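Researcher: I need the complex structure. Ligand is S-adenosylmethionine. Inputs:
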Amino acid sequence: MPANTIEQVIEPEFAIYNADCVEITRYMPDNSVHYSIFSPPFASLYTYSNSDRDMGNCSSDTEFFGHFHFLIRELYRVIMPGRLVSFHCMNLPTSKAHHGYIGIRDFRGDLIRAFEAEGWIYHSEVCIWKDPVIAQQRTKALGLLHKQIVKDSAMSRQGIPDYLITMRKPGVNPEAITGEFEEFIGEGLDVSCAAYDQHVAKVRANGREPWPFKMWRSVSVWQKYASPVWMDINPNNTLQYRSAREEKDEKHICPLQLDVIARGVELWSNPGDIVFSPFAGIGSEGYQSIKMGRQFVGVELKNIYYKSAVSNLRIAVQESFDDLLA
Ligand SMILES: C[S@@+](CC[C@H](N)C(=O)[O-])C[C@H]1O[C@@H](n2cnc3c(N)ncnc32)[C@H](O)[C@@H]1O
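Model: Output:
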């Protein structure tokens, strides 16, 4: 890793760098990362800083992908064979001012194709429901206004959902990701002993023998996670941006929901594995990974977010110790 010119914190549970993710990833050994999950800048939708290295500081999607593809290539080298990278994204609205028309561009598809071009296998995707009313209030998008339906519905559209796209590096996974699900992350599924007792009573009333508790719990959770649409993610379960100094930035950083990260980490890594986020932001992927007993490596370009991430990662370590002692 680069020497002391770069701000970095390296502790037993995590390493985080205040730097450009492409440069840091170049120092990482081949096949050394078990899983990566992150939310990239959405092309030019938000610009986080005026640094040339900020991938959100671009004038077009072409410019974004010109930069991003260096990271995809390095990610391919550092991920273990047969292991996975999940990225959170959405399709992006076009605007009259920038693109000459109001519509949507296929940013999700462009990301998938960019990964495929570097050898990745398109492995899975899940659509994450987003409330169109909140989106309408936040973005003021014409297509979501009820008055537009009344005036001329030719310009009305649905809300734009989030996606968690997962790509796989070809090859045989040398360390199987094993085990049943022991808890459900999200809203609306009860896998407690009391819920199992009710299930047992129903199954027996139909003259059948129920599965053992652990099997029933794991299958019930898997049926939720295997759904192609996740309707059960709590959008408010995110890390808070804690610094008051650059309040105007708060509208820029959009922390990834902890439940989405937790599901990815649970599905595609083992305890003790190394989880990597090249766009660590305020540390959401790291916070959740550490809480789930994984090690974390992160890179964040913007110093104020990096500092927030360091603090959040330390909180995760402390909370994990507290949980152990409880
Ligand atoms: C969508 S945000 C990530 C938020 C993060 N998932 C969280 O929950 O806090 C994208 C982040 O990428 C950072 N970024 C942009 N270009 C970068 C680069 N070249 N290297 C590292 N970080 C970069 C931005 O500063 C921003 O914090």
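Model: Summary of the prediction. The mean pLDDT is 93.
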